[in-house]
Design a protein that fits this description.
2 copies of one chain form a homodimer. By secondary structure, chain A is an alpha+beta fold. Chain A is built from 9 helices and 15 strands. Chain A has helices spanning 24-27, 120-138, 175-191, 195-206, 247-268, 283-288, 296-299, 315-320, 329-337; strands at 3-7, 12-16, 57-60, 66-72, 86-89, 93-97, 101-106, 145-152, 164-170, 210-214, 217-220, 231-235, 273-278, 303-308, 323-325. Chains A and B meet through strand 1, strand 2, strand 8, strand 9 and helix 3 of A and strand 1, strand 2, strand 8, strand 9 and helix 3 of B.
Chain lengths: 343, 343
């Protein structure tokens, strides 16, 4: 049974998930000769649908075959429990049962093609599925935050090669999200404007970190990029909630996502990366807070982070929380901008 | 010239260090066939002293040969500048020049032997050097924090195989350190006791996460361990400042450090790991604050973190700041405790 434990020293939560059951011998060969899966034994490939837990959702194409499937994670980090149990052990240790959800979005039937190489229509289906599942999970009031992410490549944490995304719903607002909410709120209080709107305006004025502006979105290399070739995609006009995207906005995003990931693939020979959606916390909960003076809808601005995994997190980063980035975002922008997308 | 940039979205600093000069081509082959160095071309091996920048410190053995050398990092993340220049660009971007220091401690003349396999006397020399360099760097009032860490193995960020440690002095207190200071302070305010002293008392009472208690130190698998087989070493009796250790305390630590890393090596076949010293911020600065009602010396407790690098940081961890740990610390404790140290 997964359990959430609070670290009293760092005020940080860890998910202890023994179902994933790792004994020392599981770590001995970290090169992980890795059961390289072929389409024959890949649980995400057409024909092997029985290898996944029972389907939560499927989006069919006009030919009647599935285009996107959503299934529960076989080794969930968090699970659906009837209620949240908080436990306090002595004066210092806090724990709660791992209430939540952990879903896998199988991005397409294709075993080897990821977003840069799929048909645009397929990427639109993926984005549509994201919106739909996030909305569905946010119906549950126990889920304070729903995090969507995608790991591309083994070094980015993808344990199965077949392209997929993941959604984890958590019973608390994660510390990274809280940090964003706080800085956005503070900025709004001071300036009566959205932080990301201000950032984007300044980036557009300066220009040197703008990789692309199209379809109502802006792609930038963030000013204080922690990682080489890090990118942020955000809507040009203020919007706090990813799940309210119109059909047009979803199509525009699908196209830009493809172009942006194609830049990364072309420039860096298909590097490993993580994609993270940073949308507002559960709107069901927000409504409860609608009497508050400042509205989350005003101060929060949804965005997508793309983190190429080219550098190694080492002792300095763990110990300080600061990152050493050898590639200035202005240089990264020039390289990314100049990448040939016709290939 | 290294530059510190503040990320306004996450209130987090990044060090942009273009001297480390990475162009896209530097990242293309991330398997890094790696210029495996042999003692002949290793800059840290005896006979190659001319390959490092000019020595900062050396500790000689009775035979007149060096046992430990300290040299500047060839590609420093931070450098010694005459003064700290803060720049504000527009309303949203803040930057400062990368004031600080970045030193490398060459742990021993041995190219392949790390702490588990060195003579105890040699490890004492390493700990003595740590104390000495930390003290020396804290003389500089511009350095608010001095972080000592050691990366073991390529996957933990060690770019050179010859065992070494690093010290980075920063012009601000890093966010990870601030989080610890805050939680420690809050606990002290509420209970009038040190947080880590309370934690240790509770751990000793419960017992299930105590790996070893010896020489005045306790080795625990932290309650909310983020990583499998994570460990924390802390002094049994309250102490906030690593640099004030007596000869006896340094010897005791050297021995326990060796035993603890030998457990890890024996159990997990020499895995990659990071070691991080979490000591109090620069005491020179603390003295200035001595009029404050609560003293850092009372509420902060120094400790060492050991982070084995067996799991991959993926989208969930980056997006949430929370970690999924498949090995409960109680299980890790049993394995680590039972590891044969006579080998």
């Amino acid at each position: 049974m997964p359990e959430l434990r609070r670290d009293p020293v760092n005020s940080r939560w860890a998910i202890i998930a023994p179902e994933r059951g790792k004994r020392p011998s599981d770590y001995l060969y970290k090169e992980e000769g890795s059961e390289e899966r072929t389409p024959e034994n890949c649980p995400f490939c057409p024909g092997n649908e029985h290898m996944t837990p029972p389907e939560i959702y499927r989006l069919n194409g006009e030919d009647g075959r599935w285009r996107v499937r959503v299934v529960p994670n076989k080794f969930p980090a968090l699970q659906d429990y009837p209620r949240l149990d908080l436990t306090r052990k002595g004066e210092v240790f806090e724990s709660m049962n791992g209430v939540g959800a952990h879903e896998v979005v199988i991005d397409s039937p294709e075993h080897t093609r990821d977003i840069p190489d799929l048909l645009l229509e397929q990427i639109e289906s993926i984005v549509d599925t994201y919106v739909l599942r996030l909305k569905a999970l946010m119906e549950n009031k126990a889920y304070r935050y729903v995090l969507l992410f995608k790991n591309h490549g083994k070094a980015a944490g993808a344990s199965l090669a077949h392209p997929h995304s993941q959604i984890i719903a958590t019973p608390l607002i994660p510390s990274e999200v809280q940090a964003r909410l706080q800085s956005s709120k503070a900025h709004y209080k001071e300036h009566n404007r959205c932080l990301l709107c201000d950032l984007t305006a300044e980036e557009l004025r300066v220009g040197e970190r703008i990789i692309e502006e199209a379809n109502g979105y802006v792609v930038v290399a963030p000013y204080a990029s922690r990682f080489p070739f890090e990118m942020r995609i955000s809507p040009r006009v203020h919007a706090h909630d990813f799940t309210t995207l119109s059909k047009d906005e979803r199509q525009g995003l699908a196209q830009l996502l493809q172009r942006t990931l194609a830049r990364l693939k072309g420039l860096l020979n298909d590097p490993p990366y993580n994609i993270i959606l940073q949308t507002a916390p559960n709107p069901v909960l927000m409504e409860e807070q609608s009497c508050a003076q400042i509205s989350l809808a005003d101060y929060y601005h949804w965005h997508i982070e793309i983190i190429p995994r080219l550098t190694t997190m080492a002792g300095f980063e763990w110990g300080s929380g600061a990152f050493i980035n050898p590639t200035p975002p202005e240089a990264a922008t020039r390289y990314l901008r100049d990448t040939d997308l016709s290939a």
